[in-house]
Write the structure tokens for this entry.
Amino acid sequence: LGHCSLESTLPGVVPVNFFSMRKKLKNINKASGEIKIACTYSVSFEEDKNIRWASRWDYILESMPHTHIQWFSIMNSLVIVLFLSGMVAMIMLWTLHNDIARYNQMDSTEDAQGEFGWKLVHGDIFCPPRKGMLVSVFLGSGMQILITTFVTLFFACLGFLSPANQGALMTCAVVLWVLLGTPAGYAATKFYKSFGGEKWKTNVLLTSFLCSGIVFADFFIMNLILLGEGSSVAIPFGTLVVILALWFCISVTLTFIGAYFSFKKNAIDHQVQTNEIPRQILEQSFYIKPLPGIIVGGILPFDCIFIQVFFILNSIWSQQMFYMFGFLFMVFIILVITCSEATILLCYFHLCAEDYHWQWRSFLTSDFTAVYFLIYAIYYLFSKLQITGTASTILYFGYTMIMVLIFFLFTGTIVFFVKVD
């Protein structure tokens, strides 16, 4: 009934919607019986030998309409970083300088009784936190995620992970996560020992299975839903068995090796004598209490990344190619700096209020960025997507919770290591 000749100047692209064409042909005469369509097409490939191999995908980035938004996001994030850096510098160069100068002038015991602020809690600052086992487990898992994220983004920026191969990025991340069990076990045991813990085997087992087990259980349930719906993107059972084998045989073994060498070494020397009886914490003002500080502490880091969160969600749920790894890597570095500086500021204010419970508060301050991430994901679902059906909604929230947990561990680990240093 019809003949079409298609030509395209883009490599491998045929700009024809055959389903739409078939629908139009059927509308011509539904009673005409069988419709035969003979289609031919030709594709012309343009080769530019001056393009470097590492820059072969740059035309995608240049053709994207939202590139200017990325630069605006980067500039906005840099302004936030400069603001926080100025605040930290002011505290370090002015407030602390004056405090130390005043404390150095106190020679007599009578003068020492006039101490106030962070100087009063120097003997309690390194008291073991409540649930120290859980803190160390989170830090070990977060260290594993932090290094995995950094190396994966670095390889992506160098062009080793092609956006044409959609599974390359995930494969690289999974392999790196498996091989980085040693830093996870080492960091978890190192902090657990500094907290006075002695059950290092229990610590390493929780580091190996707690957070990873939650992620795998969530992922397994989501995969069952996909299988029940007959989706072609469901992961085969054999692939899940391979992932379990890599987890149990390689990752867990490397975690035990890192924990063993860490436990054999001395604990972290804080160079401060810790009081046997901790000081009583006085009644705090409302803005110094834990919850308000934690809520405020996650606002600035999330403001630095929410543009990237939008494009990442688009690439996952709206089938858009994500190639802006350079922007993503810059935002990654900015996020590390912003989380660190914001938490340092809030921690200093808390110590000045004679509240020395900084471990969990520091961990949760930047972790609240993950809560804002979840809130934005819910907003994105109702404003940008048209998901119908219970199964699709469960899949969206299931995969979102995996990302939120990973982000939770990632941001908390950043600030904790900065605070300890």
